[in-house]
Specification:
homodimer; 495 residues; alpha+beta; Uridine Diphospho-n-acetylenolpyruvylglucosamine Reductase, domain 2; Uridine Diphospho-n-acetylenolpyruvylglucosamine Reductase, domain 3; Vanillyl-alcohol Oxidase, Chain A, domain 3; 4 domains; 8-stranded antiparallel sheet; 5-stranded antiparallel sheet; 19 strands; 37% helix; globular; Putative FAD-linked oxidoreductase (chains A, B)
């Protein structure tokens, strides 16, 4: 899918804009060569491609502020970008917009063990935060599968999750403060190194805002002590119903494992063929359950969960006996996406969340859809919090398969909403789910979200075309919703 | 302190407004008798008193919507109120405003064990949520000291904390969804029963917004399974430095207790005299540390923390051996505020947060201030997350003592900010700390917060005079901050 063609007059201004940007960001920091711009055309989603008009790679906050103020004044749209791994097209460039890459913001600025806080630039990768504090026995908890590549700035923009978010929360639960730049160039500091600093929770608001409210230039994250012990269980089931029942039993017993992941037969087979993790090949569903904490607690929970698994009908169970084995158990899960990529020319990764107890019905209905669309689906998901990642397998070279895969994906997401779940888990709305927002939110709700957008970027120049199916002009928003309110409850007396 | 006198013309409209309100809320739901209005004059803070112009007690969402739409159209200010226990004057009425009491919204609407969610009306008390699910072995984690009286709606408005927030998070970490009404009467649904539903995190934004953005009419909270075991430790220290050091050692060892509270000599003596909790009377500082989880883990941590306490110089240590003993250990802490009330005619409860490792220096400087102001101070605090509650003891009948207590309090809060902490912990900004917001936020930051306020309540009619030292007209906010941005980074090239 290509974004709309540039507006009239934009290309004429391009040369002058490049010169003005070069006066702010010297050297190689402004890219206008069409071949070089292709490097930015994709946002981790092969189906969406669009090179930007110009790419700018600033290295200081002052440069970010000046670039945004310039674009604001000149009416130029801006798309911020971290590592481009969102999978929903959140950082997809615009043909008539500037792409603002934060890749040069890659320094760890301060490690404050006293406050359990690390201050980093937004282009630092997720894994590098843990890397910076690991020697002292600390780590940063949210761990998206893409953690080698994805950046903290992008994690904040998408409110990223990961295997360990079941116990330790999403990005929003692990961020303490931000520095950000508004579209007009204003630099703001939000939050700090503590809980609730008073005033509105703008840090929370920014987290998951998908680059529509401001450009993040600094992030203060919370770090945790490495637990004394970590063990993983590998549990095989004859069908996904009994695996789902097992998840319900564990949570029902009041146990919150550090992670609880589920893979179906396709995903198990693909992962095992790829990395030889030691997965059982004769089961329909596999749970990988991690426990962490004091050794005495972990060993106790391994036994207790083992009993619950057997009650739920598990046909195989192994507990890691050392760190190497634990890492091997996880290697298959972490490699599941590329592993599926080896058994199919293309795949489309979905992201939705359902109530945990709806897992069996959703899996059954997805299997029926798979038959109807004539496309295989491999399932890998964060079972503990009901976050599904169905991978729809297709071949883009077969006419019509891409379109069928997209239809299949949209039907899965609508099913998530239908059973009481939500459209996203951790990949954001971006371009991909923009047109499905109406399934989830009323027009009244969407208008209030846009009114918040107007409080940050009233002209709608920052990352337009993402998240909202229709972006209203800010001036239009007032009357629409007053009328709605009065329509719903018309019996307001006059005096 | 009284709020400003009514504006010209307001009183003339009062009679007509009462009639119009009675057309919406029938029976006893509209109160205009001056004697009856006195019941609403205080907001848990004896120093601030102001009866409202009119009080309205609606019982349906339609009534709330119609009351707000009416006030919006007629330009009447509205102050929402839960149980009035904020301690910062957040729900202090206005002489020319309508007080909107949510006390009749006191029903538990739905208990959804499958999704670990409970839907309640905002006037349900904090403790009643746990009460509704306790028989099935569940509870609601945030537990403010006022939990018998304070309501969930107020907890959301203030982002309330409590003893167990060290491990289980503040209110913001335990709320899944909201229904709210905007000042113009529009009804919105935010969030649901799951993590991150896509779009902006307006649930997070509402949490802690102190009644300035909308009126909460329904709250969906997350509930947790009761842990298998809970034990409390009572640890005495010869001085507050060693108690502070002990807190640092425990957190440093990677242990997050369910709660970790500290009391100083004044507070210990007062609490023991009041409820006979079994506290040691020969120590300068007392830590109450709670552990919860599987029995095997709790017993292990009791031993481990015992060893850390001895290393830090503890002179006494007792671990609860049964539930009755655990409750007795907590009874003193929970009664600490009223207990201090018995040893002083009046006291002023402060709320600020500091980095944990600054505890010794802050306590030393508070002791010096206490001498300088000639007022005693008793300290009770959530030591685990650095949230202080100094209680300044004074006698309002002694001329000048109230003013000295307020000055002393403001100096303590500025000290919190000076050492890298924040103005509030869990009581909100309200009226009390409004004029100190400038110590914490720049004008740029405050303007952005107000721009968010404008996205919800552009005329500023909802709870004015709280949180912000100056409330700008929304139309004024645009230019101010653009100029600021350009002033800070003036080198934006033109083309």
């Amino acid at each position: 899918m290509l974004m709309p063609a540039p507006e009239e007059g934009t290309l004429a201004k391009r040369g002058a804009l490049v010169d003005a940007l070069r006066a702010i960001v010297p050297g190689e920091g402004v890219i206008d060569d069409p071949a070089a711009l292709r490097a930015f055309e994709s946002d981790g989603l092969t189906a969406y491609r669009q090179p930007p008009m110009i790419a700018v790679l600033p290295s200081t906050v002052e440069q970010v502020s000046a670039v945004l103020a310039l674009c604001h004044r000149e009416g130029v749209k801006v798309v911020p970008r971290g590592a481009g791994t969102s999978l929903s097209g959140g950082a997809l460039p615009l043909a008539d917009g500037v792409l603002l890459g934060l890749g040069k913001f890659n320094r760890v600025l301060e490690i404050d063990y006293g406050n359990r806080a690390v201050v980093v630039q937004p282009g630092v990768t997720n894994l590098a935060v843990t890397g910076a504090v690991a020697a002292e026995g600390f780590y940063y908890a949210p761990d998206p599968s893409s953690q080698i590549a994805c950046t903290i700035g992008g994690n904040v923009a998408e409110n990223s999750g990961g295997v360990h978010c079941l116990k330790y929360g999403l990005t929003t639960n692990n961020i303490l403060g931000l520095q950000m730049v508004l579209m007009d160039g204003t630099v703001l500091r939000l939050g700090g190194r503590h809980l609730d600093p008073g005033g509105y929770d703008l840090v929370g608001l920014m987290t998951g805002s998908e680059g529509l409210l401001g450009v993040i230039t600094e992030v203060t994250v919370r770090i945790l002590r490495r637990p004394e012990s970590q063990r993983a269980l590998l549990v095989g089931f004859p069908d996904s119903e009994s695996a789902g029942d097992c998840v319900a039993r564990i949570i029902g017993a009041g146990i919150i494992p550090a992670g609880m992941e589920m893979m179906d037969r396709y995903a198990i087979q693909a992962a095992e063929a790829f990395v030889e993790a030691g997965y059982p090949l004769d089961v329909e569903a596999l749970l990988i359950i991690e426990l962490d904490g004091p050794t005495v607690e972990v060993d106790y929970l391994v036994d207790r969960i083992g009993a619950l698994c057997r009650e739920a009908g598990a046909v195989s169970l192994r507990a890691s006996e050392n760190e190497a084995e634990r890492e091997r158990f996880w290697a298959g899960r972490k490699a599941a996406f590329p592993a599926v990529g080896r058994i199919s020319p293309d795949y489309y990764c979905m992201d939705g969340t359902i109530p945990r107890h709806k897992l069996p019905v959703v899996l059954t209905r997805m299997a029926a859809m798979s038959q109807r669309y004539g496309l295989r689906v491999a399932n890998v998901f964060h079972a503990g919090d009901g976050n599904l990642h169905p991978l729809i397998l297709y071949d883009a070279n077969q006419p019509g398969e891409l379109e069928r895969a997209e239809e299949f994906g949209a039907e899965i997401l609508k099913l998530c909403v239908e059973v009481g779940g939500v459209l996203t888990g951790e990949h954001g709305v971006g371009v991909e789910k923009r047109d499905l927002m109406g399934e989830m939110f009323t027009e009244i709700d969407l208008n209030q979200q846009q009114r918040v957008k107007c409080a940050f970027d009233p002209e709608g120049r920052l990352n337009p075309g993402k998240v909202f199916p229709v972006l209203h002009r800010c001036a239009e928003l007032g009357r629409v919703h007053v009328r709605k309110g009065e329509t719903r409850f018309p019996d307001i007396p006059r005096f």
